[in-house]
Amino acid sequence: MREGKDAPVNYITLKDFFEDNKIKFGMSVLAGADMLSKKKIIVPDINRPGLALAGFFDYFPYERLQVFGKTEFTYIKKSGSRRAAGIFSDFFEKKVCCAIISRNLKPPEGFLSCAKKYSVPVLASSLMTTKLISSSLIYLEKKLAPKTSVHGTFVDVYGIGTILAGRSGIGKSEVSLELVKRGHRLVADDLIELSKTDDDALTGRGLNVVRHHMEIRGVGIIDIKNIFGIGAIRDSQKLELIINLEEWEKGKDYERLGMDDSFEEILGVKVPVIIMPVKPGRNLSVIIEAAAMTQRLKAGGYNPARELNKNIIKWMKGRGDDFQAE
């Protein structure tokens, strides 16, 4: 499987964050609207600047989104107007990415003017502070997850995200089309974007512009969603299996038992790999279904080949006892 190049620097702009979430988070811009496209978010984390407001800036994570809630504003107001002015100056001169005010709270006097002085955008959200933080973290973790792209066809087979890989013209799209006809769901064809959503998990999706379209040689481009219906597609899926299709090579030793598992490492995650020979007469769609169901058993801790091997050894030991008794 050919792997694409990882993005050297992964970030989104503050404008992306605002546009994607302004309705969901009930957000508005209070200051620095012209800076939204210039500010970059590079870490999927949030900070509540409690210690910073008290004057402790050691290890201050200025690159994170800074969330102000009722606790922060109450502390500032109780500090008095003179002290508050110093707090604002000390905080905003750190050139933080952005300040977000939860619950649509009214900022203390001087807060917005100081933010404008240091060119720091200020957003307001109608969400409660904890809800704003948790929702922002979920969004940022998805957007800023490590990504790469691979070539192949990605299909959800019995809930197992399966990439069919192999050289151009080997029949990946044709087999995938047969799988869709059999009730499985297409995620992406040709170029698949994989993101590391967890320490040991990859999620795949297609590019928005060509998502759920497939190229069939001799026919052209087909639209899976409009031909087979909304139930024949998925926008994304966890990757759990890679099947490399290759032409049958006479004399080559292919896996017969399945005792030993093979893996391919992508973004530091090991994904099970099967090499599947292709030749006339093989019903690949049925074989792929069996491979996906077997992988599902293995993920649950049951390996059919190893269990059969244990039973054979146990049976042979029993037969040996019988022979000795004779």
Topology:
Elements: E1 12-13, H1 14-21, E2 28-31, E3 40-41, E4 46-47, H2 50-53, E5 65-68, H3 70-78, H4 81-92, E6 98-101, H5 111-117, E7 122-124, H6 129-143, E8 147-157, E9 160-165, H7 172-181, E10 185-198, E11 201-206, E12 213-216, E13 220-223, H8 224-228, E14 236-247, E15 262-266, E16 269-278, H9 284-299, H10 304-325
Parallel strand pairs: 4-5, 5-6, 6-7, 9-14, 14-16
Antiparallel strand pairs: 1-3, 2-7, 8-9, 8-10, 10-11, 11-14, 12-13, 15-16
Helix pairs in contact: 7-9
Describe this structure in words.
It is built from ten helices and 16 strands. The chain is α/β, with parallel strands linked by helices. The protein folds into two domains: about 130 residues, 3-Layer(aba) Sandwich (Udp-n-acetylmuramoylalanyl-d-glutamate--2,6- Diaminopimelate Ligase, Chain: A, domain 1); about 160 residues, Rossmann fold. A five-stranded mixed sheet has the order 2-7-6-5-4. A hairpin with a 2-residue loop joins strand 8 and strand 9. Helix 7 crosses helix 9. The longest helix has 22 residues. The chain is elongated. The termini are far apart. The mean pLDDT is about 90.
